[in-house]
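Worked example 2:
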Amino acid sequence: MAGAQQIAVVTGAGGALGSAISRRLAYDGFDIVLWDLSKESCQASLEQVHTAGRRGLIVAADITDEDAVREGFEEALAQLGAPLVLVNNAGLMRSRRAHNMTSGDWNQVLAVNLSGAFLMCRSAIPFMEEAGWGRIVNISSIGAKGLAGSANYAAAKAGIEGLSASLAKELGPFNVTVNAVAPGFISTNMTAEIAHARGVDIAELEREMIEHVPLRRAGTPTDVASAVAFFTSDQSAYISGEVLKVAGGS
């Protein structure tokens, strides 16, 4: 959106992926609303945004809480302006085989990964429709096609792709694009959680996972951030409702 104030909301901004996405968008000219559960987790990301010469605002709010989401957007509007870019990156895994999965495991993962993304979209859309321009990028996963031991996560990410496709059809007439980025094996803190759940060493897990990646390496948060940046740029202005895998050929 040439010449206009550019403000992007990035959820899960305190984690490795969120930090990389926030940093890349800041260098691309966006002011960043760093959204996570705690302000402390976003301090390093905020410093990177400032280093890029952009404004940053930390919003500590639970994306699964409707009131907190509404209040968070009100704060963002008051402090920075109308956010016209939304990156739904916040995610959670609670992995175990289906017959051992508790209702709590199922509900929490669906709430954070899918319902939270919906609530964020619902609050952001009016700003985009009013402006006649917007970008929504939802972080999915190649696990959306099925992930043994993480049926809750796979179901949530499949839902994210359905949500993205539906919103792309709804919002296209307002010049708002909605796309998803589906990472494969990315080395982050979530990798450590998977290793712990499987009872294996993280280095062992990484070696095992890389064997199934044609490029023979783990992806990095920067790889994912580059894909997100593409969908927020004018280069992707005629692309909507798509899922871009960032998975090394997997």
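Residues 103-131 form the longest helix (29 residues). The helical segments are 16-27, 43-51, 66-79, 103-131, 151-171, 189-198, 202-210, 221-232.
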